[in-house]
Amino acid sequence: MNRYVILLSLTLLSCSVPKSSPIQKDVVTIINIGKTDRVSLGQQLAVVNKFSPKVIGLDIFLLKDSLAKDSIIVRELKNARQVVHIFKPEGYNQQTNEFDELIYPHPKFQANSYSYGFANLIVENQATGNIPAALRTIDKSYVAQMKLGDKIFNSFSYELAAKAYGVKDKYQNKPDELFEIMPTLQMDSITIIDYKDLLLGNFDSASLQNKIVLFGYVGNEEDQFAMKDGSVHNGIEIHAAVVREIMSKPNEVMPPK
C-alpha cells in the first residue's frame, strides 16, 4: 500500500475560470461549482434535483458545520435519490496496514441514500517535458478499491459507478489492483455545465435527467493534473472519465423511474 500516493480532489467552496466541453448525451455530467460558497452550492443542488439525477457525486469536502449557510445543501441532499461523498484517509501505517483516521464530511450532510469513496490516482512526484512543474503528472494507473485490515474501501469513482449501473466484473473485489487509465479515458466528450449557466437555466435538461451528476471545481487555479500526453485536466474530470470506464453498462441510459 505504501506504493500509492493518495490524492484527494478537495474543492474549496469559496469565481470560477469556466471551461467548456462539447455537448454530448452521456451518462455523466459535471457541474463546475467554481469557487462559490455553500449557499450557492445549495442553490445548484436545488436546480439539479428538479431533473431527478440518478446519482449525485460531491467532490467537495464539507467538513465544518457552517450553520444556517448549510440549510439548502442539507435539504437538497435529503431530496436527492442517491449521493456519494468523498472521504479523507490520513496517517497510513505500514505495519498495521491501516490509516490512523478516516475523516468524513459533517454528519448533517448524510442524505437518505448516501455512501462514501476515497479519491486516488497514481502520480509522479515531478512533471516532465513541457508540463509546468507545479502540476502533478498522472501515471497510467488507478486503484478502484483498497483493503485495509479486514475492510475494503471503494474509491469515489467506483462507488459512483456501483450505485448507478454497477461495476464491470474485472474491477470488482480486486482491492489494491492497479489498472491503466490511459489512453482509454476520453475526457473531452464529457458535458460540463458551469454553475452560472446552471442557475440561469442555460443548459440542456437531458444532461441532468437520470444522469450521474458530479459537483466539483473545473478551472486552471487548482486541482489540476497533467496527463502523459501533455493534456491537463481537473480531478473531477478524471473521476468522471473513470466512472465511465468502469461502469458495467457505460452506454446505457435508463429511463427515469
Would you kindly provide a written description of the structure presented here, covering whatever features stand out?
- Mean pLDDT is 78; it is low at 1-25 and 253-257.
- This protein has one domain (28-246).
- By secondary structure, it is α/β, with parallel strands linked by helices.
- Helices cover 19% and strands 25% of the residues.
- Strands 6-3-2-14-1-13 form a six-stranded parallel β-sheet.
How would you concisely characterize the structure shown here?
This protein has one domain.
Rounded Rg = 17 Å
What is the overall pLDDT average? 78
Which class best fits the helix and strand makeup? Answer: alpha/beta
Main pleated-sheet profile:
6 strands, parallel
Tally of separate helices: 5
- What is the domain tally? 1
Q: Into which percentage range does the β-strand content fall?
A: 15-25%
Strand neighbour order, sheet with most strands: 6-3-2-14-1-13
Kindly state the percentage of residues in helix. 10-25%
Total strands: 16
Pfam families: CHASE2 (PF05226)
Protein name: CHASE2 domain-containing protein
Domain CHASE2: 37-250
InterPro entries: CHASE2
